[in-house]
Amino acid sequence: MLRIAVPNKGSLSGPAGEMLHEAGYLQRKDSKELVLVDPENEVEFFYLRPRDIAIYVSSGRLDIGITGRDLLLDSGANAEEILQLGFARSTFRYATKPGTASGVEEFGGLTIATSYEGIVAKHLADNGIDASVVHLDGAVETAIELGVAQVIADVVETGTSLRNAGLGVIGEPILTSEAVVIRRTGAGTDDPKVQQFLRRLQGVLVARSYVMMDYDCRVEHLEKAVALTPGLESPTVSPLHHEGWVAVRAMVPAKEAQRIMDDLYDLGARAILTTAIHACRL
Ligand SMILES: Nc1ncnc2c1ncn2[C@@H]1O[C@H](COP(=O)(O)OP(=O)(O)OP(=O)(O)O)[C@@H](O)[C@H]1O
Ligand SMILES: O=P(O)(O)OC[C@H]1O[C@H](OP(=O)(O)OP(=O)(O)O)[C@H](O)[C@@H]1O
Ligand SMILES: [Mg+2]
């Protein structure tokens, strides 16, 4: 059985469960369930605090985990990313009240509040800055108003929390984060069970970001049409009953589908349609 750590709470938990469900795995129905066995797929899911997942995976007791890159780096655990999942995207940044500091180099002697002490301590050390770090569990933006710190370092997605607290970002993002699949460093991905798990998640990512496009076009326009829809390997081209015409089928990125349909139409293609892909193995 492959043993997999899944976030039990917070921003990662819902999307991780949805992705596993789309990949064909059983998922818990009750948020109080801590362990779930999926016998058909030969996997066992452990629902754990997102912050603890890298520690479990680095111990080798669990084969794989889903967590955030920022949490992985903050933990300092002996685990590495083996797949990016594209959700829970955020940046990790410093912020202050206007007028406190214009750059990270002015943080010397100040106190920085954060839930991610590991990342902040390393970043300060790398930049040779001597500042104090105070750990808070959450709602870090309020720390400045309440006088606990002059600077915060926190997750920023839309920036709404910072704006609401009257804070502005300082310097470049310390890192960009997203949900990732992790494995103990050096354990590799050769294990066929790990390979199968990764292929299933990759299949979900592709099914979400591509659509299938079909259209008819005249033979003399085929080369130009195929250049617009090269597909993954190469498009399928079938003869139509109506001589001089072919039917073409190819996967295209969902975000570009409308633009490609316009370009195909201008080229003389007709009956252009797209359909959703529900599952996929590349
Ligand atoms: N607003 C957000 N948008 C995108 N990702 C976020 C956001 N807030 C947190 N994350 C990501 O979620 C992960 C943190 O998960 P965690 O459960 O510890 O905190 P949380 O989502 O803030 O939940 P809570 O604070 O309610 O416990 C990190 O990878 C972080 O980058
Ligand atoms: O840039 P934004 O879109 O506002 O998102 C970022 C905020 O979201 C998270 O907070 P959460 O709501 O999880 O509360 P927390 O601070 O207590 O973790 C994060 O810690 C930031 O505060
Ligand atoms: Mg939070």
UniProtKB/TrEMBL annotation:
Q: Give the Gene Ontology MF terms in alphabetical order.
A: ATP binding; ATP phosphoribosyltransferase activity; magnesium ion binding
CDD domains reported for this sequence: PBP2_HisGL1
Activity control mechanisms:
Feedback inhibited by histidine.
Q: Which SUPFAM superfamilies match?
A: GlnB-like (SSF54913), Periplasmic binding protein-like II (SSF53850)
Its main localization is cytoplasm
Which is one Gene Ontology cellular component term of this protein?
cytoplasm
**NCBIfam families per the UniProt record, alphabetical:** hisG (TIGR00070), HisG_C-term (TIGR03455)
In its UniProt entry, what is this protein called?
A: ATP phosphoribosyltransferase
* Natural source organism: Streptomyces wuyuanensis
Gene that encodes the chain: hisG
